[in-house]
Amino acid sequence: MLIVVISCNLALTVLNIYIAVRLWRLRRTLIRVTRTLTYVERRINRIFYSAPEFVLKGQQGTYVLRLYYQQLGFQLEQLQKLVSLINLGFTIWRRQTRGKLIKN
Fold it and tell me: What's the pTM?
């Protein structure tokens, strides 16, 4: 009977040592993973820390460019109207000069 109790205690001790070793290895692995994730988080934070400023600057720049583009569109329309009027003036002038040449 004593041998059975000692055998059971020895088996439980070996099982507990096995579990302890596995937990120790798991702890080391988790520590490495934690360090790696902390390092990655710090790097990402350092990279993206100024991102909101750049996004705001980009939005402001886009707004300014849109306003400038609208102004250029308005100026282009005005220029097209002016060119149309000049062409119309040349067309009328040519017709008048042709009419004068034919009459003479």
Answer: 0.49
